[in-house]
Specification:
The chain is an alpha/beta fold. The chain has 3 domains: 151 residues, no CATH class; 102 residues, Rossmann fold; 195 residues, no CATH class. It contains 16 helices and 11 strands. A 5-stranded parallel beta sheet has the order 3-2-1-4-5, sandwiched between helices. Strands 6-7 form a two-stranded antiparallel ribbon. A two-stranded antiparallel sheet has the order 8-9. α2 packs across α3, α3 packs antiparallel against α4 and α9 packs antiparallel against α11. The chain is globular. It starts with a helix and ends in a 5-residue tail after the last helix. The N terminus is likely disordered. Keywords: Membrane, Transferase, Transmembrane, Transmembrane helix. It is a multi-pass membrane protein.
Length: 485
């Protein structure tokens, strides 16, 4: 029976590793297919649009140049590391490599044709790379979504062992368990020899000592090992372990005790062979500058104009239901602790606040944001208003007035702020937002601690690109109605 189990385990491990190794080939085939499709579109576009005049036909000039451009483009991406296994599924490194290598390929193609005096259609060249670069990035995005979905369902995962002290192991394990799309399956932990525990406080089983890392990793057929704090007593020990593991095709990851910091704030600078991690200051002050405010003013004004018919229709529906007030006004806390009047379309009965104490007792509410499924106070129009977040559209006027931002932490209630500790109060460094990481990560399905963690991550790691990404992801969150009730 044991032999059968071991045989099955080896087959499963081999199949998993083959699937993981197939990712580069899959990406290569997708890129090749996209380049062929873009080439066809560029040929048709050049001929139909007649962008530039040319003596020869487009097809004749591509007899040699077409295949050479595609092969050169793919080779440039490959040389830049765009098909390495470790770039798939997470981070922006994959997109950067594809983008930079595509620009290099375009430059080499243009310069090469010029020096060789080859008559390549300029219209085709502009269309091919003008359409091709965004198309390649879109293809990688689709591939990433497929990979992440597969990982969430238990496929394409790497078996991981975490080495370190129990507290550091639990920190790393919490992140890997929370972010299942990363594709790491924790199979055990390695602790120092003096630690005789059988498992960590969060339930990660201890399967050996850090000094026996190579042997244990082989026995459990791990794909990667994470070295957390307390894993080794000296750098020479880690170096020897890395040397031992290089013969067994095991990925080695050093996980410093740093979490919830964006890659833009981290710089690794080797000094004398010692890799030093430099962490830039939090960027919350940048979120208060004129660039973000200008974006908020212009964006909210245009959205108000675009949604004007929907605003009028919704106001009429809310009033016709029970002839009560159209808007719900509530005091919220904004930037630097300033109070403001937050406006929403009313989605509950008129005496909703009076019924709140009874619901507190029924649900055992003990602090934080109060949310419940099937809230009896929600009106019939309020159900679809909440489902698609239409009730929050009047907050565009709060954004226009400078009390809120399009993207930011969730606007808290005064009673919530009164319970903040110094750690949580960092949320008040920036304007609250109509949407944010909390909105695109589950909305009401999030626990209080998860919502705070996401808000603090946003405050400390703000960037304009992140705001744009959140706005795009908000459309999907609203359309899917996940966590809306």
């Amino acid at each position: 029976m044991t032999q059968l189990s071991e045989t099955t385990n080896r087959w499963t491990t081999g199949a998993r590793r083959r699937y993981l190794k197939a990712l580069p080939a899959t990406a290569l085939l997708i890129d090749f297919a996209i380049m062929l499709a873009v080439g066809f579109v560029a040929i048709v576009g050049r001929r139909e649009l007649d962008i530039f005049t040319a003596s020869a036909s487009v097809e004749s000039s591509l007899t040699f140049a077409g295949p050479a451009m595609i092969l050169g483009w793919l080779a440039t991406i490959g040389l830049a590391g765009g098909y390495r296994t470790d770039v798939f599924g997470a981070g922006v490194d994959e997109y950067k490599r594809v983008l930079n290598s595509s620009l290099v390929a375009a430059g080499l193609s243009g310069v090469g044709c010029y020096l060789a005096k080859y008559e390549l259609s300029r219209g085709f060249f502009l269309l091919a790379f003008g359409i091709g670069v965004p198309a390649l990035l879109a293809g990688r995005l689709v591939l990433r979504r497929v990979i992440q979905t597969a990982r969430r369902h238990g496929a394409l995962r790497q078996r991981v062992v975490i080495a370190g002290s129990r507290s550091h192991i639990d920190e790393i394990a919490a992140v890997l368990r929370r972010e299942t799309w990363l594709g790491y399956q924790i199979i055990g932990a390695l602790t120092p020899e003096y630690d005789l525990s059988e498992e960590t406080s969060t339930g990660v089983p201890v399967i050996g000592n850090t000094g026996d890392a190579t042997t244990v990793v082989q026995e459990v057929q791990a794909d990667a090992i994470f070295f957390a704090g307390g894993a080794v007593g000296a750098s020479s020990q880690l170096r020897r372990t890395v040397w031992d593991l290089e013969r067994h095709n095991v990925q080695v990851v050093v996980a410093p005790s740093v979490t919830d910091i964006s890659s833009e704030r981290i710089k690794v600078r080797p000094v004398g062979g010692l890799p030093l991690i430099h962490i830039d200051p939090p960027t919350w002050s940048d979120a208060s500058r004129w660039g973000k405010r200008t974006f908020d003013v212009v964006g909210s004004f245009l959205l108000i104009l675009a949604f004007a018919p929907l605003l009028v229709f919704t106001a009429i529906q809310v009033w016709l239901h029970d002839r009560g007030p159209v808007f719900f006004h509530q005091t919220r806390i904004g930037k630097d602790g300033r109070e403001f009047d937050c406006r929403k379309f009313r989605t509950m009965v008129v005496d909703a606040e009076a019924r709140l104490a009874t619901l507190y007792r029924q649900t055992g509410y003990d602090g934080g944001l109060f949310k419940m499924t099937n809230d009896p106070r929600v009106t019939k129009p309020g159900q679809w208003l909440r489902r698609f977040s239409i009730d929050e559209l009047p907050q565009l006027f709060n954004v226009l007035a400078g009390e809120m931002s399009l993207v930011g932490p969730r606007p808290p209630l005064p009673i919530e702020v009164s319970r903040y500790d110094d750690h949580t109060a960092r949320r008040l460094h920036v304007r609250p937002g109509m949407t944010g990481l909390w909105q695109v990560s589950g909305r009401s399905d999030l626990t209080w601690d998860e919502a705070v963690r996401l808000d603090l991550y946003y405050v400390d790691n703000w960037s304009m690109l992140q705001d744009l990404s959140i706005l795009v992801r908000t459309l999907g969150a609203v359309a899917g109605s996940r966590g809306a009730y």
